[in-house]
Design goal:
globular; Rossmann fold; 4-stranded parallel sheet; 44% helix; 2 domains; 254 residues; 6-stranded mixed sheet; alpha/beta
């Protein structure tokens, strides 16, 4: 079984690593777009066309399921991708505001500056936060630093976000799919009592459920393929700075 994961940068790594851990035999194909990253500032119609085009290509190249482990792609292109692919399952990503707010009175959403200021995040808070107080924390430059593998810039961005996170916050929601790659550093910057919520494992679990609906007989060989802005390539060197990236290069089942 072949799973395609589409994101402009390294945001697909956490979900891909969970898939590799949960079902080592899956064939994973990462479609990255370094020539045009990040997608967040791009016009919505451009992003929609780019994601749909990539998803159609992924299915033509053998994908049984398409995953959009990217908040921007999911917000802008999930419906359009599903319409374009017909019966092929397409799984999107939503920040875990609902479970965080269900169990905590005060939460913070760490996200990119664009997402923090977006109507999309405002709707999520209005729909799912209930009575919980919500602090919106823009993590300036963090996703870009992760894509570059710039450890100093990552540390500086996390420190800045932690300083701006209210002391009474009980839980943080990772509102960017890149951020789980540095989850340990984020948690180390906060009070030990703070809980973290991200969507990567839930997206992986939903992907496996949809895969099982398609075919439960053919698992795959545990391969990893990478396409970079339409060209066959390899996992970027910066990905190897993170445990999830290194896990994807380990032999299947290791």
């Amino acid at each position: 079984m072949n799973v395609a994961l589409i994101d402009s940068g390294l945001g697909s790594l956490p979900t891909a690593a969970h898939l590799r851990r949960l079902r080592p035999g899956l064939d994973l194909h990462l479609y990255l777009d370094p020539d045009n990253a990040p997608w967040g500032p791009k016009p919505a119609q451009w992003t929609l066309a780019r994601v749909v085009e990539t998803a159609v290509r992924a299915v033509a190249e053998g994908a049984d399921v398409v995953v959009l482990p990217c908040n921007t792609a999911s917000v802008i292109a999930l419906d359009g991708t599903r319409a374009a692919l017909g019966s092929v399952p397409v799984i999107g990503t939503v920040p875990a505001v609902k479970p965080a707010a269900r169990d905590h009175d005060s939460i913070a959403i760490w996200a990119t500056a664009a997402t923090t200021a977006s109507a999309y995040q405002a709707r999520l808070v209005q729909e799912f936060a209930g009575s919980a107080s919500v602090a919106a924390i823009a993590c300036h430059g963090l996703a870009d630093a992760i894509d570059r593998g710039d450890l100093d810039a990552i540390s500086a961005s996390i420190a800045s976000a932690a300083e701006r996170t209210p002391d009474d916050v009980q839980a943080i929601v990772l509102g960017c799919t890149h951020y789980p790659l540095v989850a340990d550093q984020i948690m180390a910057s906060l009070d030990p009592s703070v809980r973290m919520f991200d969507s990567a494992e839930a997206v992986a679990a939903q992907t496996l459920r949809r895969l099982d609906e398609v075919d439960t007989q053919h698992e795959g060989s545990g391969s990893l393929s990478v396409t970079l802005s339409g060209r066959p390539g390899a996992l970027p060197e910066s990905a190897l700075r993170f445990a999830a990236g290194r896990a994807l290069l380990a032999p299947a089942g290791i």
